[in-house]
Amino acid sequence: MGGRDTRRKISLTGIKPTGSAVAPEQGGTLHLGSYFGAIRPALAMAAAGQHDSLYFIADYHALTTQRDPTVLRDNVYDVAANWLACGLDPERTIVYRQSDVIEVFELCWIFACIVATGQLERGHAYKDARSRSESVNAGIFNYPLLMAADIILYDSDVVPIGADQKQHLELARDIAIRMNHLYGEGTVVVPEALITEAPVVPGHDGRKMSKSYGNTIQLFAPPKALRKEIMKLKSESTPLEAPKPSEGQLVYELYKLVASEAEAEAMAQKLHAGGYGWGHAKQELFEALDAQLSPLRARYLELRTDETELERILQAGAERARVIARATIERVRAAVGIGLRSGV
Ligand code: TRP
Question: Burial level of 62, CB count in 10 A (0-12/13-18/19+)?
Fold first, then answer.
């Protein structure tokens, strides 16, 4: 643990590979909301370079609900291709698949032995599942334990998460504090949540873009389909000549996500002046989106069809991740009294 005070802070993010009904050529899993609202801010944080960053695909978490092995594997490759296409750099960050570093289960068991079942029973996700069904699998019950192990195994200092994951992070913190209390300060690193500030991206109907509202626009939709979706965006039917508001208008709010400040200001001026219709604004929005997304779309399709390359990247990441994981596991085993006595 030497150098802990001087080492760079570690930031870790887990991504659950949830499915898509949309084929890669039709635009794949992600929608504009997940890109602008989650991926882009997360990648900006990695690019800022203040932390050593780890990004992993939580396939064992997905197994709590996914029963189709082909779909589960597809989803892992799809998430990997998506994030890499969006700019995740496997040289500067450690990108790996959760299941490739099995040390996580050793830590998970050790945590299971110090956590009261009551704490897991109070989990929102578990209670939610219970309210919908009598029989909830033990994977869902233990989900937060595995998540705590994901985090603590890599000495994570900060964990960027959405607000929905806050309770899980609190449990991970509690576990880390308890470990250090039981086995000595410095046994594990106590993680901190970093609730990411991300823009809320509106969907077709103006509500937050979300799969559950059915108002999403596929991130990697082919240009023609993307244009069609943009043209469908809700806008007021004001006469072409009339001056129009900009702020709070769906098309303009989406444009601000892709345009520079000057470009956004230029569109606002045109709207305010009149003689510029929502059709024009949608066309500009489409062009800006397409210009920004086409290189990403091309990269996504290229990667998505090359699982050998994706696997190579994931395995290289797992090797680097395992180095950190092994050091933690050895330290924790020694602390709790598992395995041989040191010096024997
Ligand atoms: N539970 C997270 C989600 O559903 C995914 C996840 C698993 C995770 N392990 C993690 C996130 C560790 C952060 C850290 O989004």
Answer: buried
Pocket test residue of 11, 15, 175 for ligand 1, highest count of atoms within 8 A of CB: 15
Short-list 84, 89, 76, 31, CA closest to 254: 31
Question: In the structure encoding, which two tokens stand for residue 147, read together?
Answer: 């998540």
Residue 261 near residue 255 (C-beta atoms within 8 A): no
Are 218 and 225 in contact, with CB atoms under 8 Å apart?
A: yes
Cα 343 to ligand 1 centre (Å):
38
Domains of the chain listed by start with CATH number: 3-201+307-336 (3.40.50.620), 221-299 (1.10.240.10)
pLDDT 10s digits, 277-301: 999 999 999 999 999 999 999 999 9
pLDDT of 125-164, one tens digit each? 999 999 999 999 999 999 999 999 999 999 999 999 988 8
186 vs 179: CA distance, rounded Å: 9
79's CB contacts (< 8 A; 6+ apart) are 15, 17, 29, 57
Work out the number of other CB atoms within 10 angstroms of the CB of residue 141: 18
Q: 97 is written with which tokens?
A: 């698949």
Residues 6+ apart with CB under 8 A from 130: 136
Atom 3 of ligand 1 has which residue's CA nearest to it?
16
In the beta sheet, which residues pair with residue 15? Answer: 57
Residue nearest to atom 8 of ligand 1 (CA): 14
Ligand 1 atom closest to the Cα of residue 143 is 1
> Strand 192-195 vs strand 94-97: parallel, antiparallel, or unpaired?
unpaired
Neighbours of 242 (CB within 10 A): 12
- What three-state secondary structure class fits 334? helix
> Which band of pLDDT confidence, cut at 50, 70 and 90, is reported for residue 2?
very low
Centroid of ligand 1 to alpha carbon of 161 (angstroms): 8
- Distance in angstroms (rounded) separating the CA atoms of residues 191 and 188: 9
Question: Which residues, judged by CB distance below 6 Å to any ligand atom, belong to the binding site of ligand 1?
Answer: 12-14, 16, 58, 61, 147, 150-151, 159, 161, 165
- Structural tokens at position 88: 């995740």
Residue 329 DSSP SS3 = helix
